[in-house]
């Protein structure tokens, strides 16, 4: 059990004190302590170890500079894959801490923010540069080689919600804010953004890129929409797809590390709060724009959805397109006309004419004889003959049917019917005897 609601997760393939790679996950909660769990342990009751924060009791009357951990909720995590024993964490205490996983202690504290730090990202191929986004409407790039890390800052118009480095060129990065704006920055230009667009009407909750398709960028928002952008070349987003999903406000988005177009989404709708989409199959615009960029080693890994399998199955059932009469001459015909017979009709047609329905063309002189229609079965109305009192009497049960169109045979009353009619006649005027049943007794009126 976790001590509080989880706010951030980070997977790391590092095992402190071991030579083999690990399978760990760091969990950040509303508490200042970060827990490290081993995913290979089934039904684990306690974390593998903890990166201790400072409790509120210890903070009373103490010097804040003497603390070696977070003093408030941890909002973001980032593991450094190039220096695998380093884990960075951003907190609501307006600081970023670099943790040494081997010693389970804080190694460096990055400060300079005036509000909580919501998102952090390590720069690809650079083990010592960390990008941090804060609610003070600033983005800072720290050089962590120094004890007092230097930072380059950029200003935006809203609180920073998401950060993302470009997968094509690590000189560029993207910033998404709470007011739905999407910024493109070049680290070589610290003065202004390269581009600014209004991506969504509400706060951006997801900013991810495909690790295998160059230029494929995806954003999600609280406006219940997902958008696909093309940023190849100029690094300025160009809208390709916009789709509104029925899962409430989208709170989370992540791209698959194995499949180029698969994305997982988390929403607030209790009936549909998790969904996995294949962007390649749900949109023809995405397929046309990015199909040529798919690497050959990943082309076979594109999963096929149920809709695609259903469409392929339906395509196999359809007959080939009919050959036009102009190519075969005026006397050419196709049997049957394409699209007029169902599956059972095609089988019957093939049996009767000895042809493959919709696939064989014959001339009128070579047409096989058409079987005669079966005779129509006629059935006489099943009416019982009337007796001398005008009542319908019973019959023997014989069904008078003729297949030659002749008249129906005369129906004959049964012995039970005759006996009943004799009883009615003996009662006086031929009226039927009415009986009332009360409490198991029979009364005759």
Briefly summarize what is shown.
This protein is mainly beta and 445 residues long. Helix content is 13%, strand content 34%. The strands form 9 sheets. The chain has a 4-stranded antiparallel sheet, with no helix packed on it.
Q: What features would you describe in this structure?
A:
There is one protein chain. The chain is mostly beta strands. It has eight helices and 29 strands. The strands form nine sheets. The chain has a four-stranded antiparallel sheet, with no helix packed on it. The longest helix has 12 residues. The protein is elongated and about 125 Å long. The chain starts with 5 loop residues before the first strand and ends with a strand.
DSSP E strands, number: 29
Overall residue-averaged pLDDT value: 78
Radius of gyration: 40 Å
Strand order of the largest sheet: 1-2-3-4
Low-confidence stretches: 323-336, 355-367, 396-409, 429-434, 436-445
Q: Mind describing the biggest β-sheet?
A: 4 strands, antiparallel
- Gap between N and C termini, in Å? 82 Å
Beta-strand content bin: 25-35%
The structure class reads: mainly beta
Shape: elongated
Oligomer: single chain
The percent of residues in helical segments reads 10-25%
The number of helical runs is: 8
